[in-house]
Predict the structure.
Amino acid sequence: MNNANIEIIEYSEIYAEDTVNIWRKSKERAIGQKEIHSFENHLNFLNNILNIDNDVYIAIDINTNRVIGILAFNENEINQLYIHIGYQGKGLGKKFVDIAKNKSKGRLTLFTFEVNKKAQKFYENNGFKIIEKGNDNEENLNDIKYEWIRST
């Protein structure tokens, strides 16, 4: 990935199907199970629910005009962060996390699935610490709650 070929923009519905496609594929790879919601429900969630309490950004590969990542967050929490499988491990996730950190009040929480070891390593490498473990999600998988606090 050449970072000069990546543009991070505010989400627009013109990218809805592309965004949901990479989101579903990335999540499936990360947790080893199919998305439980239909594609149409996922589109509705993205376009009408997620954006109520979150800023939503996407990353575009400007060479292909394809969506390669999504970030949904607010000043307290990262709610969604998914990167196209072919673009993982190349710095885009860190760029997304840095956007959320910069717009936060100095503290962010997030959840990741316990089976998603890559995500755990990524978040821990980016200053997040485990504060809780549990199982409160639709996928019926164990969750890990992380927290990041800006150092003073």
User: Anything to note?
Assistant: The domain at 3-149 is CATH 3.40.630.30 (Aminopeptidase). The CA atoms of residues 72 and 116 lie 19 Å apart. The longest strand covers residues 66-73. The chain has one domain: 3-149.
